[in-house]
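Q&A FORM
Asked by: J.P.
Topic: structure of Cytochrome oxidase assembly

PROVIDED:
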Amino acid sequence: MTYLKCPAPGDQTAQIVCAVCHEELVRPRSVVQAAVAVVHCSKDIVKGGIGGRVEAIRPSLPQGPSLQLISTSTRSYASEAAPTTLPGTSRVVGFWLLGCSALVFAIVVVGGITRLTESGLSITEWKPVTGVWWPGSEEEWMEEFTKYKQSPEFKMLNSSIDLENFKRIYYMEWLHRILGRVLGVAFVLPAIYFTARGKLARKDIWRVGGLSLLIGFQGFLGWYMVKSGLDESITQVPGAVPRVSQYRLAAHLGAAFTLYAGMFAMALRILRDHKFARGTLDLKSFAGTTGLAPFRRYAGIVTGMVFITALSGAFVAGLDAGLIYNEFPYMGENIVPPVNELLSSDYAKGVNSDNQYWRNVFENPTTVQFDHRLLATLTYVATTSLALASLHPNARRILPTSTKRLLMGALVAVNAQVVLGISTLLMLVPVHLAATHQAGSVILLTTLLGVLSSLRKPSQLAQLARRIPSESHALRATLQKKIPVPGHIPAAIQPSA
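REPLIED BY: S.T.
REPLY: Here is the structure written out as C-alpha cells.
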C-alpha cells in the first residue's frame, strides 16, 4: 500500500514524498501525471493538488492498512473531478502533424504538375539557401536561361523555347522546391520547440526525429533525381529522350508517400488518444473485439497495395508509358499484350548478361503500363471487398462507426481513382486529369490510414486517464461518509470491508 506525505495547504514549493520509497515526486499538474508518478511503488491512484489536497486515492477502497491523509481539506472531497489531460505528447502536436501532412500532400500534387508540364529540369543547379529567391532582374533571368540551354532537354527537345516560356516552367519547379523548404522549416523548428518544452513523449521524440531525417533525405532524393536528367551522355544515344531516371522518380515519390503516411498516422493516434482520455470518444469507437484482428490485418494489406500501386504509377510517369496503348481494357487486340512485348530481349540487356528479363518490369513501357493496370485492378477489388465486408451483419455489429464511414469513403475514392485512371489513359494524359489522378492516390491512402487508426485500441495511458475522473469522484463520495465533523480530517481513516 502506498502512503503519500503531502505538503501543507498553501505550500507551493514542497514536494510530494512517497512514504514507502521516500522518493520525491514532482508535483503533478493533472490527475494522470500523479497516477503515473506513484505507479512505480504501487498501483494506487492518487491525485495531489496544489495546496496539499489529496483528491483521490485508489479506484477501489483498500482492505486492511489505513490511508494516512496529511494536511487534507474537506473541500477537496466535495470538489468535482477535474478534466483529464493526457501527459506525454501534447494534443497540439497532433494538429501540427496534420498541418505538416497537408503540406506534404500539396507538395506531391505540385510535384506531379511539375513533372507533367516538363518543368522539372528547368533549374539546373541545387542551391539550398540562395535558391530561395527566383531571378530578380532580366540579367539574372538570362543567366538562368543560358544554363538551361546547356542541358540535354533544351538541346534535344526544347531548342525553340523562348525566355517567356522558360519562365513558366522555371516558376513551376521553383514552387515545388520552395514548398519543400517550407516543409523543412515548418517541421524541424516546431519539433525542436516541442522537444525542449517536454510536449513529446520519449518514443514520439524518436519518431519525430526520424521524420525530420526523412525530410532531409527527400530533398537529397529530389536533386539526385533531377541530376539524372542532366546527364550529357544521353545526347550521344540515337532516339533517346532526356528524362529523369524512373527508379529515382519512384524513390522520390515513395519517400513522399512514406513521409505523408508517417505524419498523418501519428497525428491520428495522438488526437484520438486525447479525445478518448477526455471522455468525448466512446470506448465503442475503438476496436477492442478480438474478432476484428483479421479485419485489421486485411485493412493493412490493402493499404500496402495502394502504396505499391502508386509506386508503379511513378514508373509509368517516368517512362511516359501512359502514351502507349491508349485504350481500355484492351492493350492492342488483347487484354494482355503478347509475351514478346512484355518480356522483350531489347530490355533484357544488362552490363554482365543479356538475359536479365526482369528489367522489363521496370524499363519496358509496355510491361510497366500492364503492371500498373494489373496492380490497380487488384487494389480496386481488394478495397471494394474490404468495404463490402463491413456491411456484413456481424461486421456492422462490432465495427466502430468511424471505421464503417471511412470504408465507405475509401470505396468512393477507389472508384474515382479507376475512373480518373482510365480517363487519363484514353485522353492521352492531360495535365489536369493526370494531376488529379495522382492526388486521388493520396486521398485513397488517407482514407485507409484512417481505417487503420479507427481499428487501433487507445493507449494504456489514455485508458488510465479515461478511468481516473469517474473513479476518483465515486471514491470521494465514499470518503466523505468517513468524516464525522466537517473541517476535521482524522489522521487515519479505516475503510470498512
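FOLLOW-UP: The longest helix spans residues 163-196.
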